[in-house]
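Lecture notes, unit on binding sites. The following record was shown on slide 14. It pairs a sequence with GBH.
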Amino acid sequence: NGDMIKGHFRKDFMWGAATASYQIEGAWDKDGKGQSIWDTYAHTEGAIEDGTNGDITCDTYHKYLEDIKMLKRLKATHYRFSLSWSRLLPTADSSAPNAAGVAFYNKFIDGLLANNIKPCVTLYHWDLPQCVQDKGGWQSEDVVEKFKEYADFCFSQFGDRVKLWVTINEPHVQCGFGFGMGIHAPGIKDPMNACYQVSRTMLLSHAHTYRMYSSKYRAKQNGLISITLNSDWCEPKDPSNPDHVKAAQFYIDATLGWFAHPIFKDGDYPDSMKEHILEMSKAQGLKNSRLPVLSEQEKNLIKGTYDFFGLNHYTTRLAEQITDETQAFAIHPDMPSFVYPDPSWERAGKQWLFIVPTGLRKLLNYISKTYGDPSIIITENGCSTKHSVNNPGDTKQLEDEQRCRFITSYLNEALKAHLLDGVDLRGYFLWTLMDNFEWAAGYTERFGLYHVDFEDPARTRTPRKSAATFTKII
Ligand code: GBH
């Protein structure tokens, strides 16, 4: 899938793996931790494919020293992980922090640095404190102040050592899955309204936090802060058909552009998205668009709140204009694009992930061109396997040839974007360090460079072949 080229990334390129608190930590009710919406959601009957939850998962809360050893062995220069808001601030009140939670992250950060691994910290990877949810969560304006208060607390505690921050992970997935389809916490199924409302409070939370860091901490702590957006690459099924071209562009606008345009461009949602949702709203007899209008003041607040572009990318789709409503993309009932994979593409673990390395190079170029050549950090990219699909008989899938190919070929395309196209690429974080709780899929879908034995109380971690492949590339 594309020629291999030789060359190097920047000398200071960040090489790492990524994880998220709820997916790896466990200790869900230990040492004063509060509950999060994912604790609640995963404990709800029928919510998770295999009926599991993240109560223990990789047990990183107790086994973090092993994680650090694994990162060291990989030769990672960086590690991206997230903080559990409810472990740090069980009541979401920064005047009543949980000392054990603060101590845990201090030990962890110090352990990384002692091994010459720099932390990249995500403040929010989907595990909102349940007490914040109980007061309206992302659907209430109050969340903006709460988020800022939490971020302020984190900068004050960890910012002396953490120089790379991500405010929010994939707001688009949160909005679509958590509030549109209702298949992620908090499980709200309101694609017409809630889905759009929370995109606004997320943008405002991010923007206020960025500005607070800049005014209160930047001079002293001298770190970088931004947001992480996920995006598929999307191409017209038939590039000579203008409807297909429009549908592909709309898909990118309404997923990546929904958040990228406001932050990296002009403070507002893409025109295509605003116009289309207004039209759909009017057709329903509404006076105003279901997509909340951002005021001039809000636009100015949001615009430019980034130090880099955090990108999560996994796969690619083809697009056509929708002809049949039942084909509507579930995340967006307003989506006029019908998207699907090319049947010739190789499939990874589950239904959604097709291996299309060239899509990464195209997406990197698109971002660079559309958003004024920002420094880009690939904050996630990786490949899942489903038990015994790829390697029957190898139950731990330690010989994960497909993942090795995935990593090599995607990085090869990233290198082309850097060397041949001049994209300003600064780092690459592989999703993920070890098998973990894969949200609605539970433990049925595995992304790890390390296999984790979830039957074993010790949660033994075993390197897969891909761990060695990644290290060799690093
Ligand atoms: C990222 O989301 C997340 O940041 C990370 O936490 C997660 O573990 C990782 O990717 C792997 O999924 O099964 O058809 O319902 C990327 C966006 C959203 C893509 C959920 C897969 C499931 C599609 N992901 N989606 S489906």
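Take-home: The longest strand covers residues 118-124.
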